[in-house]
């Protein structure tokens, strides 16, 4: 299976080691995901948005092109082609102000373009997904907000945005899985490692 991973953290994918002020639990999770996928023999296509220098801002010219089912950004076109080949998508990022960071939001705004990634058959009706190989989406998030508050007080904003407001709207309703890692900065090293190992095992079982 071809698994595309969209990773968004300023420290980049290499920040997985436990080095103070140079470490990211998101990057450590990414390393675990990739180890698990490799064990299973999946093909991994990593998009590291910060390492790529992705610009999340939709310019006037880009919006005009977007409306014509085109793009003026070669990186966006590259991402779209890679998404077309994906059987499974993994998003991995920290939660900031209860939602995704700017680069992931820009990825959705610019890469998920009408006429390329989805089609609007009729106004007011669900869209048609043009990612014909796609079988599922996994979301991994890291946050300081307690899990209970995020789910029951704030109402799970990230799943409303990414699952209900994006993939379900495109007709992808099955195999949408969210794995949330809350309060990891306050956990012991042993607890953090335990979650990393569990993540590796989980993605070794991905089908």
TrEMBL record:
InterPro entries: Flavodoxin_fold (IPR003680), Flavoprotein-like_sf (IPR029039), NAD(P)H_dehydrogenase_qn (IPR051545). Signal peptide: none annotated. This is NAD(P)H dehydrogenase. Coiled coil: none annotated. Belongs to the NAD(P)H dehydrogenase (quinone) family. Residues 1-197 form the Flavodoxin-like fold domain. Keywords: Oxidoreductase. The keyword Transport does not apply. Pfam families: Flavodoxin_2.
């Amino acid at each position: 299976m071809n698994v595309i991973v969209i990773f968004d953290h300023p420290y980049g994918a290499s920040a997985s080691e436990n080095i103070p002020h140079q470490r990211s639990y998101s990057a450590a999770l990414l390393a675990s995901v990739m180890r698990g996928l490799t064990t299973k023999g999946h093909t991994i296509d990593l998009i590291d948005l910060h390492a790529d220098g992705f610009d999340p801002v939709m310019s006037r010219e880009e919006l005009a092109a977007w409306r014509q089912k085109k793009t003026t950004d070669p990186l966006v076109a590259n991402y779209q082609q890679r998404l077309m080949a994906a059987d499974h998508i993994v998003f991995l990022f920290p939660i900031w102000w209860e939602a995704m960071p700017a680069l992931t939001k820009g990825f959705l705004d610019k890469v998920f373009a009408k006429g390329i990634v989805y089609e609007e058959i009729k106004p007011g009706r669900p869209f048609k997904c043009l990612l014909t190989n796609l079988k599922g989406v996994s979301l991994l998030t890291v946050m300081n907000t307690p899990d209970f508050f995020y789910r029951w007080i704030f109402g799970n904003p990230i799943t409303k945005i990414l699952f209900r407001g994006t993939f379900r709207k495109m007709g992808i309703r099955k195999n949408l899985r969210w794995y949330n890692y809350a309060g990891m900065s306050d956990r012991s090293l042993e607890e953090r490692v335990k979650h990393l190992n569990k993540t590796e095992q989980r993605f070794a079982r991905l089908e």
